[in-house]
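My current task is to audit a protein record that another person submitted. I have pasted the whole thing underneath without changing anything:
***
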Amino acid sequence: MDPSTKASAGPSPWPEFRDASLQIQALTHRSFGSQHYERLEFLGDSVLNLIVSRMLIERFPGHAEGELSRIRAHLVRQERLVQVAAEIGLPPRIRLGEGEIRGAEGPRPSIVADVLEALMGALYLDQGFEACESWVRSLFLPLLNNPDLLRQSKDAKTRLQEWTQARAQALPEYSVVATLGAAHNQTFRVVCRIDKPAMQAEGEGPSRRAAEQAAAEQLCQRLVHP
């Protein structure tokens, strides 16, 4: 697909570029060519954080800096950026070299998230801050209007701990049950347990903390949807 072609109608509009070369660069992975998105992504990451910070200041005037930082991290993490990118039809437009093409699976999530930020950086250079802010707001306003945003922005371990404390129960217990792989590329397997109801769940991750979060998330989902 020609990357300069306007995306079909959807929840969020595709930005109009005056300089098509900036858009093309933002959509180009280093495996495809030397004029790739990485410098634009560096800029776009900062622009995104600034705009989302401003939106949060407006949306939550009574919240402290620490809580706003937590909500922002939730909104701009890779999973959310990939979700937003899918809504505007971004993944099929990314220009990848043969070594990065994964068939029907599409680009890696990390690449999709980076390219979305690169587009923000490119639009900032192309038309200035106001145009970029208008586009980013159109992408993220539905996420800010989510009534469950404050709850969802808490990490799984925090949510599980608050659930047990609200019921005067013992705190969740975490234990490492396996460490897999070489020392430079380990995977941790952790079990999380709660008393009432007596439940446990297992999670894996590249660090003990990540594995604990994965296990806690499993329990949180089961407690909400038994």
Summary: The chain has two domains: 20-148, 156-224.
